[in-house]
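hey can u check if this looks right to u? its 197 residues, i copy pasted from the old doc so theres a chance i mangled smth
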Amino acid sequence: MRIEAFRDGDDVRRVAGLVSRVIGAGGVVLLPTETYYGLAAAPGSGAGVDRVFRLKDRSAARPLLVLCADWEQVEALVEVPPAWRLRLSRTWPGPLTAILPSRRQLAAAPSGNLAVRIPGSPLLRALLYRVGPVTGTSANRSGRPAHTRALEAATDLAGEPDLVLDGGETAGGPPSTLVDLSGGEPRVLRVGPAPWS
């Protein structure tokens, strides 16, 4: 397991190529989000997504959240209904995850819908600009608490990630609001920091 510092823009530039190679080969990167550490794989990689599920000891029936740098990356993956575009643009970047119809079949979205979010962390978005969208599920075994420290997260998993980006202790807090926008009416599936109602 390789560990690299991830604390500033210089670190982003230094590790971006390495992250791209790892996820491009079906590997998994443990990285900090604005709340907890997460597991990043290429959302279209069957090997990477399967590995995330194995590391979390979690059923593959549950889809994975995907983190995007900006609207361009979001719209390359999902269809955003015009009725919700303004609402989402006022919330992103931020702690709201939206389930939307996927534009194509992805390993991370076997049901045809994909959960996407533009994270609030500028450092994470800077990395996503360089490597593209990645999965962002929390780095912990299923049913256990999420972690704010990289090595605690790495040792809680059912195996080792290929690469750990250590950004120090993260802020923690409640998980993002989760709203399903794939049907006619929005359904709030999880109440979090970003209000929807």
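The chain has one domain: 2-190.
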